[in-house]
């Protein structure tokens, strides 16, 4: 008899009454449930529940009875006609983001600052938890339908949830994925949109007309950021694109011109930039007036997200990747390509080349040069600033090797020396690393904005950016001025501040202004022979530094590392910070890569394309191709490091055994930086190394034993092997070549 009862119950369950599809969706949203939460409870897929709500499919036993039971209970709580509350994102409490350091008395605030809307505020305030009204709302009939799946983990308080600008209310970007034949766009804050587009041209049209994606401009005369669409592997297959590129396509960096998707775009009157259809494709139509029609595609499976900077971001689920990239976009800017490209584009976005003039007599405005920008036209560099193969050097013999008196060589440190007998008796080698060193080097730096002027026998001016031919071989590091007092040091244990390899110069050489100014600071006279100086100059990189600094500090704060922490607390907070939220840790890496890559991109070298020495290459046509600015930043960064090393040596008698870019290694009796950094009552040596998260302060890089260091050098028969290169984990795979 019981079997008969079970059969009857099953028969009734198979016909359990259900409300209409639209009512099912209303009831779910009324209770603040996501599709994923309902799917998990019923042990079905999210797309299955979506189909029930859309009326495309109907539930079957045993899920139907449970689904009907849930809807019946919800109907009692939310009768028809009751208001539907907005869906909310699960946002946990996180520590407050530190305020950006106030500008000093000698560093005026930039006149050209970013708008203060939620998507473009300074990064340490732009991503606070939004009020409920700002969170994605249930779908409305007039726009693309939306769903909000439950996040695999709660979003941090700083997760952006869309901007106040109604044009971009769904955020700066979307990750498009395909499930069960339906395309979905995963947006900021957990919002998911149905994507009706069946082809790439239709996807571009949908993005511009319906998706409400983009980002407001960062500067008054600038341009809004174009929407970014990230395509998963499933989306590539769905839209007729290869999941991966062939070897030939990877080398070319693009699909062949005859590919069917490119033909589809051409037929729909869309164009591609000169980069073609590659990992970062820009699809556009010529602007009509002030209106831009442009969408950028990012294809992670084509290696768009370099694993050196983005780790495994390209392998993340769509919602997680959208969260990661949206956080970066809100704090830095919408990615425009690699982190290097984005770093360079950020400079232009903060200082656009042109602006609208005041109205003329007829009331019409015209385009004019924007002060403190690099302008819209490239300028020639000085011959000494040009890299080998530059057209300005076309008259040199083909294999001519330029001497220091012919070429400006401002590069980061790569220096090491043998340990002294006293250092060999210590137990540990401890590495300390300067946070965001090149960003700190750019802060407050005056750089040239226009073309250089050649001057013979100039009087050195530390406030005038340029390149100077001067003999600094007389600067003796065994006796230098510190705070206007002469101090004796062991100069043999110090790298020279004037060369990347730390070797003392032997005669005249070209230097950027910060390097020559440091020679004067150390107490020595300088007499330049000639110079290329830039009378049109300004602090072009200040706003760039401030935005990247704020982005870095805000993300580190989300990871539990705050500004102004006591030294021991800071070291404890840094221990394992990347594991607290691996996705935000990737954002940190990307921000740091944006700094270094942006500076490096100022002197981009030829990239194939049949280039031959003496011919121009594509990058030379950019106003942002400025090797002099790159040299000035690197010069100042190296000098900043040397200044701290000298202050530390004068106060403690301790000298570094190796320096690599922004990392210095010291012999120490203990394994912690606190075992050799001269803190007194919690306060660091003024002008020396200070532990902290802010750019220019230092963190612990790694510790190895002195025996390890001596053993490695002996094994490779290299007494000056740069141990700073391996101090982090102690792994040495081959002899150091300096590359």
Q: Could you explain the architecture of this structure?
A:
There is one protein chain. This protein has 739 residues and is α+β, with helices and mostly antiparallel strands. Helix content is 29%, strand content 14%. It has 21 helices and 23 strands. The strands form six sheets. An eight-stranded mixed β-sheet has the order 1-4-3-2-5-8-7-6, sandwiched between helices. Strands 11-21-22-12-23 form a five-stranded antiparallel β-sheet. A hairpin with a 2-residue loop joins β21 (658-660) and β22. α13 packs across α19. It is globular. The termini are far apart.
Helix share, percent: 25-40%
Main beta sheet: 8 strands, mixed
Number of helices: 21
Which runs of at least 5 residues are low in confidence (pLDDT < 50)? 84-162, 735-739
Structural class category: alpha+beta
Principal-axis shape equals: globular
Write down the overall mean pLDDT: 86
Total DSSP E strands: 23
Query: How are the strands of the biggest sheet laid out side by side?
Result: 1-4-3-2-5-8-7-6
Strand content: 5-15%
List the helices and strands and how they pair.
Blueprint: H1 2-13, H2 21-30, H3 35-42, H4 46-54, H5 63-77, H6 123-126, E1 146-147, E2 173-179, E3 182-186, E4 192-195, H7 200-209, E5 228-231, H8 233-238, H9 247-252, H10 260-267, E6 271-272, E7 280-288, E8 291-298, H11 307-310, H12 318-331, H13 339-350, E9 354-356, E10 367-369, E11 414-416, H14 421-424, E12 428-434, H15 437-442, E13 447-448, E14 453-456, E15 466-471, E16 479-482, E17 485-488, E18 508-512, H16 513-521, E19 530-533, E20 537-538, H17 542-558, H18 567-574, H19 582-601, H20 627-652, E21 658-660, E22 663-668, E23 698-705, H21 706-715
Parallel strand pairs: 2-5, 5-8
Antiparallel strand pairs: 1-4, 2-3, 3-4, 6-7, 7-8, 9-10, 11-21, 12-22, 12-23, 13-20, 14-19, 15-18, 15-19, 16-17, 21-22
Helix pairs in contact: 3-4, 12-19, 13-19, 16-20, 17-19
């Amino acid at each position: 008899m019981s079997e008969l009862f079970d059969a009857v119950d099953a028969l009734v369950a198979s016909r359990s009454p259900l409300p209409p599809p639209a009512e099912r969706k209303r009831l779910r949203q009324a209770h603040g449930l996501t599709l994923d939460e309902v799917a998990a409870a019923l042990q079905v897929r999210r797309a299955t529940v979506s189909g029930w709500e859309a009326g495309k499919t109907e539930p079957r036993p045993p899920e139907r009875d449970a689904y009907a039971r849930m809807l019946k209970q919800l109907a009692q709580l939310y009768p028809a006609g009751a208001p539907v509350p907005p869906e909310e994102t699960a946002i946990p409490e996180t520590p407050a983001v530190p305020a950006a350091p106030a500008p000093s008395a000698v560093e005026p605030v930039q006149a050209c600052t970013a708008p203060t809307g939620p998507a473009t505020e300074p990064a340490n305030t732009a991503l606070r938890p939004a009020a409920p009204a700002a969170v994605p709302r249930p779908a409305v009939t007039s726009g693309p339908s939306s769903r909000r799946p439950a996040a695999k983990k709660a979003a941090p308080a700083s997760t952006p949830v869309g901007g106040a600008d109604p044009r971009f209310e769904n955020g700066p970007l979307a990750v498009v994925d395909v499930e069960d034949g339906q395309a979905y766009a995963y947006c900021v804050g957990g919002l998911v949109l149905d994507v009706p587009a069946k082809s790439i041209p239709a996807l571009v049209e949908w993005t511009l007309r319906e998706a409400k994606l983009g980002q407001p401009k960062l500067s008054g005369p600038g341009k809004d950021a174009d929407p970014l669409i990230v395509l998963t592997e499933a989306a590539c297959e769905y839209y007729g694109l290869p999941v991966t590129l062939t070897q030939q396509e990877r080398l070319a960096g693009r699909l062949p011109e005859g590919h069917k998707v490119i033909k589809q775009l051409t037929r729909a009157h869309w164009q591609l930039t000169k980069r073609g259809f590659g990992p970062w494709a820009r699809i556009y139509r010529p602007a009509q007036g002030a209106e831009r029609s442009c969408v950028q595609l990012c294809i992670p499976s084509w290696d768009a997200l370099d694993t050196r900077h983005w780790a495994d971001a390209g392998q993340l689920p769509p919602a997680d990747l959208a969260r990661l990239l949206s956080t970066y976009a809100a704090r830095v800017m919408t990615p425009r390509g690699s982190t290097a490209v984005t770093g360079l584009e950020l400079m232009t976005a903060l200082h656009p080349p042109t602006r609208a003039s005041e109205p003329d007599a007829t009331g019409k405005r015209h385009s004019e040069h924007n002060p403190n920008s690099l302008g819209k036209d490239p300028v020639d560099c000085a011959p000494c600033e040009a890299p080998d193969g530059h057209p300005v050097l076309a008259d040199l013999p083909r294999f001519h090797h330029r001497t220091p008196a012919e070429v400006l060589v401002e590069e980061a440190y790569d220096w090491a020396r043998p340990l002294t007998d006293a250092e060999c008796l210590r137990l540990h080698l401890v590495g300390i690393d300067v946070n965001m060193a090149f960003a700190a080097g750019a802060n407050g730096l005056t750089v040239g904005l226009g073309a250089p002027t050649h001057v013979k026998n100039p009087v050195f001016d530390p406030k005038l950016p340029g390149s100077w031919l001067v003999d600094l071989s007389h600067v003796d590091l065994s006796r230098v001025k510190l705070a206007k007092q002469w101090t004796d040091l062991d100069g043999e244990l110090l790298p020279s501040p004037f060369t990347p390899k730390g070797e003392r110069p032997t005669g005249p050489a070209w230097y950027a202004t910060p390097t020559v100014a440091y020679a004067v600071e150390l107490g020595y006279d300088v007499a330049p022979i000639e110079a290329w100086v830039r009378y049109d100059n300004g602090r072009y990189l200040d706003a760039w530094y401030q935005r990247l600094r704020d982005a870095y500090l805000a993300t580190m704060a989300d990871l539990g590392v705050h500004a102004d922490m006591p030294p021991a607390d800071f070291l404890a907070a840094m221990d394992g910070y990347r594991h607290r939220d691996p996705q935000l840790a990737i954002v940190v890496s990307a921000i740091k890569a944006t700094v270094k890559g942006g500076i490096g991109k100022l002197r981009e070298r030829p990239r194939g394309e049949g280039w031959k020495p003496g011919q121009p290459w594509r990058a030379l046509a950019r106003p942002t191709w400025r090797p002099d600015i790159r040299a000035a930043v690197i010069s100042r960064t190296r000098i900043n490091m040397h200044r701290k090393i000298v202050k530390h040596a004068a106060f403690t008698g301790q000298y570094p055994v190796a320096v690599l870019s922004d990392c210095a290694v010291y012999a120490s009796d203990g394994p912690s930086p606190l075992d050799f950094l001269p803190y007194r009552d919690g306060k660091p040596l003024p002008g020396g190394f200070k532990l902290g998260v802010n750019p220019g302060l230092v963190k612990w890089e790694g510790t190895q034993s002195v025996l390890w260091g001596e053993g490695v050098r002996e094994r490779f028969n290299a007494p000056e092997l740069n141990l700073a290169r391996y101090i982090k984990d102690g792994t040495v795979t081959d002899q150091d070549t300096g590359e």
